[in-house]
Amino acid sequence: MSEGAVVDEGVMVAQIDDIPDGEAIKIDAAVLGTADDVAVFNDGGEFFALDDTCSHEKASLSEGYIEDGVIECPLHAGKFCLRNGEVLSMPASVDVACHRVIVTGSAIRVVPNPERLAS
Amino acid sequence: MTITQLPSTNEGGRPLLPTGDLCRPGGFAQSMDVSGLVDSGNGLVDRSVFTDRRLYDQEQARVFATSWLFLGHVEQLQKAGDFFTTFMGEDPVIVTKDKGGRIRAFLNSCRHRGARVLRADYGTTRAFTCTYHGWSYDLEGKLISVPNEDGYPAETWNRAEWGLLEVAQLDIALGLIFATWNPNAPALADQLGDMKWYMEAFLDRDSEGTTVVGGITKWVLKGNWKLAAEQFGTDWYHVNMSHASALMVLSPTGKGPKADIVNTPGRQFSDERGNGTGFPTHPKSRFDALPVHEYYDYAALAERLGKARVEGPLTTGHATVFPNFSYLPVNGSIRVWHPKGPDEMEVWAWTVLDKSMPEEVRTAQRLYNLRTFGPSGIFEQDDGENWSEIQAISHGWRTNTVPLNYQMGLRSERDDGVYPGSTSELYSDAAGRRFYARWAELMNTPAWHEGAE
C-alpha cells in the first residue's frame, strides 16, 4: 500500500468491504492483463496481492490461510510472505510474484507487476 | 418425518478400484460358522466371542462392514468444510459437509500409500491433504492435486480413479448421523423400526431438536466392545448391585432410593435386528438433575410424546442401536463403543441437550452427565470396572470354555399393548439374546463384499 499514489494508477479490483479480514479474493488474469490470476488478501486491514497460483503445485492461494503477514497454501502448506511473495516454507521452493496494491478511500487498486504481464 | 432418506449413492462404489492383477487367494479370509457359539433359544453364549482374534476379524468384515454405524451429531458440522473424524469399526473415517451443504463420509486413508489423510479430531478445511506425500482431496473426496504428477505415465494414469472411498449410504435420524459401507443395507428407518419410537422419547422432546456440547469425551477400556453394547441394550439387572454406592451417594438419605424406586417395574424392548432398550415404568418417572427436572413440563411432554413414553423411556433407562451405538436418556449421554482388537474398546461419548434449554439447564445436565457417566463418572467407573475385570480373566482355558448365562426372562417377550414391538420385563436378558442372535446371523451370512469370492 502506498500513500499519495496517482489515483488512476492500476486497476480497481474491489472495495475494502468485499474482502473481510483474514480472507482473499481471486482476480481473473484477464481483468489485470496478467499471466496468472491475482489473489488479493486482507491481513488485519492491510491489503496485499500475489500471483494466485502456488509455485509448488496447482492451487489457488486465494483459498489459503492468512496469518501474520504470511499466506499458507491450502493444499500442501507451502508459505509465502504477503509483502513480497518470498517463499518461506517447504514443500514450496520458488517465490511467487508480487503486485502493488493501492487503497484510496474504500477502493482497492492493483498495479500489475510489469514482469508478470500476459505476453 | 425425522429420518432423512438420502439417495443411496453411487459414490459408495466410486472410485472403481483399480486392481490390476491383484486378487486375494481363495480362503484368504476364512469364515467360521458361529452357530455353535450363540444359543439364543437356551440363553447361552460361548465366551470366545469376546476373546477370539479370528472372530474379531470376521466381525469387522461381516458385522461392521454391513451394518449402519453411528458417526456423530449433525450439529458437529455447521458449514462447508467443517469436519470431524471417527471410526466405523476399525476403519477411520472423515465426516464433512461439502460445498453443497451435504454431509459426506470418506475412508480416512490416502489412496496412495494408505496413511490417514486427516489426523485432527475436528476442524474446518478447504481440502484434505495427506501429510505423507501431499496427495490432496477436495470436500467431495475427489483427488485434486498430486505432487510430481508428471511422473505417472500418461497412458495409464487416471487421477479420477484415485479419490477417497466414500460410504455407500449415509442417513440422519433424529439429528444422529449414521452410515454404512453396505450398498444393499436396508434403509436406516428399517434398521431402527420400532426402536425409533423409543429414541424419540430422548431425542424428540423439543421441537427445535437437540445439540451436543462439550466436545467428544474419549477413553480407552480393556474389554471387548460387545460387553458394553450388550449391557446398554439389555442390562438393568446390574444397576442396584454394581451402582449401589453411587445410588446411595445420590439419594437424599444416603441410604439409597426408596424401595418402590429400587424395585420398580419396567419394560425391555428388543427386536430381531439386535436393537434393545430397557426402562423403569413409573407414573413419577423424573429427571435426576434438579434444574433439568424443574425445566421440563411433564404434562406438555405427555402431550407431545404420550403418557407411556413419559412414564417410561423418557428418563431413566438404557439403549443400544445395533451394533455399537448406545445412549442414556436421563443424563443425555450418547456413546459409541469403538472396537480396538478383541480385548480393547474406545468409548466416545457426547452430551446431548435440547436446543431450547436455557444456559443454566444445559450446564446442569452437562455436569450431571459428566459426574455420573463421564470417564470418571461414579456410574461409568462401575461399568468399566466390570467389563475390564471380565476381559482380564477371559483368556484362561477353563474360564473361556464355560458358557455364559443369558436366560433371564427366557420366552417372556410379548406385545404388551402399550410399548411398541416385543417387550419383556425390565429385568431380562431378552435384548441380549437378540443382540447375539443378530450378531451370529450376520457372522454366518456372506457380506455384500464377498460376492466375488
Total count of domains of chain A:
1
How many β-strand runs of chain A? 10
End-to-end gap of chain B: 40 Å
Task: Specify Rg of chain B, calculated over alpha carbons.
Answer: 23 Å
H and E order of chain A? EEHEEEEEEEE
Number of strands of chain B: 22
Largest interface: A-B, 10 and 11 residues
Q: How are strands sequenced across the largest beta sheet of chain B?
A: 14-20-19-18-17-16-15-22
Share of helix of chain A, binned: under 10%
Main sheet overview of chain B: 8 strands, antiparallel
Quick one: overall form of chain B?
globular
**Which CATH class of chain A?**
Mainly Beta
Mean of all residue-level pLDDT scores of chain A:
93
Give the low-pLDDT segments of chain B. Answer: 5-15
Any idea what the CATH architecture of chain A is?
Answer: 3-layer Sandwich
The percent range for helix content of chain B is 25-40%
Largest sheet of chain A: 6 strands, antiparallel
Portion in beta strands of chain B: 15-25%
Which class of secondary structure composition applies to the elements of chain A? mainly beta
